[in-house]
Amino acid sequence: MYEFLRGSVVHTERETITLEVNNIGYLIYCANPFVFDKKGQEIIIYTYQYVREDVLRLYGFASRKERGLFELLLQVSGIGPKGALAILAAGAPAQVMQAIEEENDKFLVKFPGVGKKTARQMILDLKGKLQDIIGDSAGSSLDLKDEPINSMEEDELEEALEALRALGYGEKEIAKVKPKLKKENLSADEYVRKALQWMLA
């Protein structure tokens, strides 16, 4: 298994990035691909290789802790890679850990693909096992900016909305946060994080 890849992002989609490492392009699935969209900069992405009969994919993470949480979530019956990425995309693993430790299934069912049964299974399987993985890796709050949106921000917003759809959020949920997002002046990454904060509130 690859521990990490070091290279430059040459392409970003709503679910994936293409990381160029020594003239080889790796297609990597991410919770929020826009986090890694640092033009021309060399970055490190911690990876997880997912292998099934008909699937071979690389998943990428900003830290070992994030990858560790992803691996634990995959062990829960009813949660696959897409569901695990949707949980990680919120950027607040400490909140997820707290919800599991406090058996707060009402918070957990806010994630796409997580019903009451899966939320209870998460609590059963993961309670007491997350502290070593998460540590102090809490989600950071974003600065609010009250500036009108321009065409560049509109592109960023559209990319963010596509990313939310890829994570499994429906048009109804997206429509609730879109008017608020239009008042912000953020990058695609920040739009995704902000939308998820509001959806999970």
From TrEMBL:
A biological process from GO: DNA repair
Keywords: ATP-binding, Cytoplasm, DNA damage, DNA recombination, DNA repair, DNA-binding, Helicase, Hydrolase, Nucleotide-binding
Function of the molecule: The RuvA-RuvB-RuvC complex processes Holliday junction (HJ) DNA during genetic recombination and DNA repair, while the RuvA-RuvB complex plays an important role in the rescue of blocked DNA replication forks via replication fork reversal (RFR). RuvA specifically binds to HJ cruciform DNA, conferring on it an open structure. The RuvB hexamer acts as an ATP-dependent pump, pulling dsDNA into and through the RuvAB complex. HJ branch migration allows RuvC to scan DNA until it finds its consensus sequence, where it cleaves and resolves the cruciform DNA.
Name of the protein: Holliday junction branch migration complex subunit RuvA
Annotated Pfam families: HHH_5, RuvA_C, RuvA_N
Keyword hit for Thylakoid: no
Main location: cytoplasm
Segments of this protein annotated with the region Domain III: 152-201
Origin species: Alteribacillus bidgolensis
Localization, UniProt: Cytoplasm
Residue span, Helix-hairpin-helix DNA-binding motif class domain: 71-90, 106-125
Chain's gene name: ruvA
Family per record: Belongs to the RuvA family.
SMART domains (alphabetical): HhH1 (SM00278)
Subunit text: Homotetramer. Forms an RuvA(8)-RuvB(12)-Holliday junction (HJ) complex. HJ DNA is sandwiched between 2 RuvA tetramers; dsDNA enters through RuvA and exits via RuvB. An RuvB hexamer assembles on each DNA strand where it exits the tetramer. Each RuvB hexamer is contacted by two RuvA subunits (via domain III) on 2 adjacent RuvB subunits; this complex drives branch migration. In the full resolvosome a probable DNA-RuvA(4)-RuvB(12)-RuvC(2) complex forms which resolves the HJ.
Xref: SUPFAM superfamilies: DNA helicase RuvA subunit, C-terminal domain, Nucleic acid-binding proteins, RuvA domain 2-like
An example molecular function term from Gene Ontology annotations: four-way junction DNA binding
Domain remark text: Has three domains with a flexible linker between the domains II and III and assumes an 'L' shape. Domain III is highly mobile and contacts RuvB.
Record's GO cellular component terms: cytoplasm; Holliday junction helicase complex; Holliday junction resolvase complex
